[in-house]
Amino acid sequence: MPVLEPTAEDKQREEELAKEFLAIKDELRRTKRQLAMVMDLNKCIGCQLCSMACKNTWTKKEGREYMWWNTVNTMPGKGTPKDFEKMGGGYKVLFEGRVREPILGQLPTRKEFGDLWKFNHEEIVKTKWGEVVLRAKNSDGTTPEWSMNWDEDQGATGISYPNSYFFYLPRICNHCTYPPCIDACPRHAIYKREEDGVVLIDQDRCKGYRFCLEACPYKKIYFNFETLTSQKCIFCYPRIEKGVTTACSRQCTGRVRFVDYLDNEQGPIYKLVKKWKVALPLFPQFGTEPNVFYVPPLAPPRLDDSGKIDPSKSRIPLKYLVYLFGPEVEQSLKVLQQEMQRTRDGEKSELMEILIAKRWNEMFGPFTKDPIVTA
User: Fold this and answer.
1) What is the pTM assigned to this prediction?
2) I need a labelling partner for 291 at 20 to 30 A (CA). Which of 21, 177, 279, 306 fits?
3) What's CA 359's distance to the chain center, in Å?
């Protein structure tokens, strides 16, 4: 059979459909304002109260039991899903940010996320003491090989005491300015809320194709095997609508998380991201322009072979922090150190006042209402 070449009309129609598709995606991304979060990694103690607040609020049942929309991973570590940052997705940014070319991503498996484990409790109860030990099994009966906190507190490998190190990295959906999940969804089920930029998945439109899981370079979208739909962090928008901050930020005992609109020049987010420029996105090279930012971790200096302090070398290698947060991290650390020294010298520092967060109700912009009052 001869291969029919497309006619001029066919090409024109194809171009029209492509323009229509792009116009729909532009509309799904359009927002008036953008909610954002800043996490100060110098105060995170890895207590997981944020994870439990999210779990108890959103992911306890109906196929979401294995989901952790909020995670706190030990870094350096493989995170969840395992080695997520190597699974592709996101964009290659071209022509000074004017063009974003999608990068093919990998679909993470349920086991790479960390399955919902079942334990042999009944066997232990019915067996003589000491003859059976507690064992975990995945939902399909296999032995677990990974989980959300599989490598918790292990830290950097190949570095011996006293120069070993680790720090905690909390993660949620980044509610990106350019969410690749929106572009990847053929059903147009994913969109940014016009009023605040929160990225949501319409559960009625979603048909579970999971292209969004492949497209997200942060792998913060899960698949619900009961409803057969994709689900993710919703930035607690029902709380936001009532003037209450997110569950993870409200529950944080270390006052790690700041929440506000990115354009509020009097708020903590704007000052940390735009004014002082100490809060940076995770893996900016993914090209999504995340709206979750991090104050990078400071570290004590290394000790040399004789046990003396080497002030020229930080315990956490700068190269690793650049890998996580981009080249701007070096200037961010310098500003943090300069402002810390300013307070030691008895001077006032707006940046340190923000980060110390003596008054919790100044951390959340307009979202300071007590959730009990709004119930």
Assistant:
1) 0.92
2) 21
3) 25
